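Data availability (excerpt). The following record was deposited with the supplementary files.
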Amino acid sequence: MDVAPLLAAAGVEGSALAAMDYVIIIAYMLGVLAIGTYFGEYVRSAGDFFLAGKALPFWAIGMSIVVSDIGAIDFVSGAGGAYKFGLAQANFDWIGSLPAAAIAALVFIPYYWRAGVYTIPEFLGKRYNSAVQVIEAILWLGFLISMLGVMLWATAVMMSTVLGWSTDRSIWMTVAIVGMYTVSGGLAAVVMTDVIQIVVMFIGAGALLVLTFSKAGGWDGVVNTVTGLGPEYANHFTLLLPHSDPTPYPWTGIVFGLGIVLSTAYFVGNQAVVQRALGARSEWDAKAGMLFAGFLKLFIPVLVMIPGLAALAIYPGLEDADRAVPMLVRDVLPAGLKGLMFAAFFAALMSSVDSYLNSCSTMFVSDVYGKVYGWIKGKALSSRHGLIVGRPLTAVLIVAAGLFAPYIEQFKTIYVAIQTLLSLIQGPTLAILLLGILWRRTTQWGALAGLVLGVGVTTCLTAMGDAVFPSDDPFLFVSFWSFIFSLIVTFVISLLTPADPEEKTRGLVFGQVMHDDAVQEALRDRVNGS
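Predicted structure:
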């Protein structure tokens, strides 16, 4: 059968893909859509929709966390960052994954899981008050919708490069496919499609890595070519850059901003990550899933970011670094593998979009709509009501993200856009989470002040930018100093305000949980479902 007329009718006659590639891509997309919508039959309540009925095993949790994270962030923007800034980009997975995942698994996840909450803001509401819960939810909703826009824009970058499609067509096709199965199947559909997608991604990325380095003359060929481009590329193969380096990644920012704050806050306070653990079938699965995710993340720089360095040797002087890997897919891979890699990329994008979409709708229903409903009606939102609101809201959110996506183009790279958005809220969030779990004397007013004033400080520091910090994009420094500021504010205000009743913090603070026999017995009963 001659498929050329069909491809021309679809507007892809100028694409770099062969008929075989389109068969692979279409079969893959239809398969994912069928599997994702299948889980809609098992969704009967808000708990089923938002937390997969608390039935997820550790391996699915770990794989889903990884595949959700590496979509827009790594395949396009991570590789683009490596092209523009060098090997220092890999620190976001090597320094920024396993240590933070271990902290999340061993310190934070047990408290979230035992509290029986849907979201991080809901946990903060239990620990502090409704004001902290709603403000945190609104901040994260703004970030999650922005992230959805970032991921949809990454789709447009890949499709416009490989297929020759317009950015609008690329964005709205992703909106349609991901929206259908996420609205239908909720978290279970998201996680089970993620399991399939990570396998496809690792195969596709592995093939691209091998063939790209073969074309570039191996590792030595890449190093010699890149370092020969000029003195500005001398540090491209250095993991820890000097403090005075003008890139966003000087060693001080990597060690303090990323290693201490951003990476930890990402694994303990990002709803899209933590929500998988909250849907675990047991506390052990929740902790093991987080550790497994941290381990898998160690392979991501090799599979995804290193090809960005090779692309610099093959395509020096690209104005838009985020197009480096899409160009490799277009030019280096043969027919068949090109379709598989494109499917792998689209799998990554879909998994990121569906994860953030589900988390966004969960947070809105649980922490904003649910709270307002309770204040007006004087009763809690029912599980069935939450499901009725959650599904159409999911559709509205992804459409809103599609409208926002084109504005991402103004940032230097997609990765800088993501980390700048994260830095606005991660420091204050980590501060009140850390003090809330480790220090019982932390009060609701201390947390409220730390959160609100901390976000104000991050906004001011970001606006001042290189006038205060050595980097042009100082998000690592902003996150660190906002964390320190919020810690101090929360600590001081907590000492100046009355302590919260012991009954209010029971089961939510480390010292109480470890040394209170009554709390230990209550937690065992909760875990056993009694």
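Summary of structural features: The chain has one domain: 30-411.
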